[in-house]
Amino acid sequence: MHARVDLAKGGYGLMATGVEARVAAVFVHGFYGHPEKTWLQFQTLMDTVGSSDILSWWATYDAYFYSYDSTRQIGPNTADLLDFIHAVFPVPNWSNIRADGIEELARRYDSLVLIGHSEGAVMIRSAILRHIQASAQERSARLPRKDMLDAHLRLFAPALWGALITGWKGVLLRSPILGDLLESCLYYSPAYQQLTRNSPFLNEVRQRTIELAKKHPGIRALRAKNVFGAVDTCVCMEALETDPPAVYEPECTHASICKPRGDYLMPLAFVRHEDETTVAVAS
Amino acid sequence: MKPRSQSRRETERFELSFTPTRLEVASNVHRTFHALADIQATLWLHLGNELGMFDDEDSGRVWNNLREQFAGALQYLGRAGISRFFPDEVRAFIGQLQRADSIASARYAQRLSTRIIDTRGLEMLFHEVGAQFRDATLTQHVVFDTEAEWEDHFEEEPNADAILNGGATTGMSAVFAGYLRFIEHMGAMAQFFRQLEEGAESNFSALETERRIRAIHNWRLDLHDTDTRARFVHLTATFLRNVAYDDELAGLGFDPSSLLARIEFLCADWTGDSQFTINLPIPGGRRRTANG
After folding, report:
1. How far, in Å, CA of A169 to CA of A196, rounded?
2. Which whole number is the average pLDDT over B40-46?
3. Quick check: is A171 in a domain?
4. A170 part of a folded domain
């Protein structure tokens, strides 16, 4: 089971109570996302379905649902996210993340999983680059051994190629309740291809990640697992050439891809940190 | 690990979300809205206690803080005001609350089960309602505007980019931003109800909980009220017209009737009336009829 603690700026953590957690999982929502609504039913299913044999590893996970103002530029948001990750892993500093109500909680995590949706995925990749940059300058280009560079990246519909959202189209696409009406329409329209743009910022994140991943094949955090909804029309569906091939979930949209349900458990299994285990989950 | 108790944490959060600040009360929002919200906050507090999310001690502490504004709101609205916005069973319960020693001692005839919904799901319901508890935008205009005030809004069209960028603070774009936020809220409540129906110990207890929630919450957009419904339909027609005549959306082949169908579905769920329809012509020649 997990108990909730509130964190700064509307974020919160669901902390394992049965056994001492060994894995910190940080969830980062996307543009106009929400720390609760973006990840709907993760919060309850991790304890209900998570108690079954097939997903029992959830009992050793502490889940941190990070919150931020997505209307700000990605750069400063990335810096804040990196500070948050450093405050959580490997040993949480409760006062730094303003974990309200925790009086005593001993934690030393063995593993870190960074989970992003849409823009949140971009922020995670950008945070990894920022961390490498800072580490390289501090340690004369020698990369640190055991830290967030060992993180496992699990990205839902990463917006690494961006999207253009304006006008009434933007109003509809932004809406979690109405957006899918337009998404299904855009899916069949070649005109939508004109809506996406390669921003210099995103181009830089992509290029640097690929270059570093080739140069440092042992750094796990430079390689992400990516999953897209097959009918997602908000983002360009492509993994980086240095990532494993992307996975496409039938009938999932940009918004629904990261929301597990009783009959759609893939997101719960996808965030598992152990790479070698294939978890078969009925969907 | 010693996390603060769920009850304590959630009652503190409840107070932050459901209790008005002086700034909000002093703003240009209709005072009736805040009086109704004060009464409603008490009803939500009681619901949280009845469903087992707030324990008696924490509920009592919040009730002590709310009691004065609850009494003030009742006095301001009067019997007629209460009758207009709340159904009979809630009015009877409000009468009990006025006389009750504690929040827990006031009881509905049909008590809800504390096992009806997963605790975390219940927290998220309260967070959803609390997130815009004092957001009066749509209710203020649709329910409380005079006829002249209402007509003034339609001298201009809503600006999509202003809505999208959060820059709409006055005029039709601000009304529309509130309309769209409310649509999202209706969708979130519908999702909660589905979760409730899937997890409840019986269909009856799920439907009874939904009915109770609608009874205390739906005054914010009472679609059974003729005037409120007409204004909501007017806004929906404006939304459809802007979407229908948007060149970019037209180029993509977007069908506005799907939007109307979705809004009708949300309204049906909001009211608990599966037969609810809006019956609007679709701009551009396509026409929908009732139940079509």
Report:
1. 13
2. 95
3. no
4. no
The answer to pTM > 0.80 is no
pLDDT at A119 over 90: no
In a domain, A177, yes or no: no
d(CA A122, CA A202): 8
Q: Is the pLDDT of residue A104 over 70?
A: no
- Nearest CB among A17, A44, A166 relative to B121 is that of A44
B259 contacts A101? CB cut-off 8 A: no
Nearest-CB residue to B124 (from A36, A172, A191): A36
Is A275 a member of any domain?
no
Inform me whether the pLDDT recorded for A23 exceeds 60. Answer: yes
Asked whether the predicted pLDDT for residue B51 surpasses 80, the reply is: yes
Q: What is the per-residue pLDDT across B163-214, written as a single tens digit (0 to 9) for each?
A: 877 767 778 899 999 999 999 999 999 988 988 888 777 788 888 999 999 9
Count Cα atoms within 13 angstroms, Cβ side, for B89. 12
Q: Estimate to the nearest angstrom the gap between the alpha carbon of B265 and the chain centroid.
A: 16
DSSP B227-283: HHHHHHHHHHHHHHHHHHT-HHHHHTT--HHHHHHHHHHHHHHHHT-TT-----BPT
Separation in Å, CA of A77 to nearest CA in chain B: 18
Q: Residue A213 and residue B125: Cα distance in Å, rounded?
A: 43
| pLDDT tens-place string over residues A166-219 | 789 888 887 888 888 887 676 654 434 333 455 677 888 999 999 999 999 989
Q: Residue B282 above 80 pLDDT?
A: no
Peptide bond into A144 cis (omega under 30): no
Q: Indicate yes or no: CB of A185 within 8 angstroms of CB of B243.
A: no
A168, A169, A184, A192: best to mutate for the B interface, most B CBs within 10 A: A168
Kindly list the residues of chain A whose beta carbon comes within 8 Å of any beta carbon in chain B: 3-6, 15, 17, 36-37, 40-41, 43-44, 47-48, 71, 100-105, 165-172, 174-178, 181-182, 185-186, 188-189, 191-192, 262
- For A236, the domain range is 2-162+197-270
Q: How many domains does chain A have?
A: 1
Q: What is the ipTM of this complex?
A: 0.83
Question: Is the confidence at residue B262, as pLDDT, over 70?
Answer: yes
Q: How would you label A205-218 residue by residue, b for 16+ Cβ within 10 Å and e otherwise?
A: bbebbeebbeeeee
CATH number at residue A78: 3.40.50.1820
Closest approach of A208 to chain B, Cα-based (Å): 31
State how far the Cα of B130 lies from the Cα of A43, in Å rounded to an integer: 19
Backbone φ/ψ region at A259: left (φ over 0), alpha (ψ -120 to 50), beta = beta
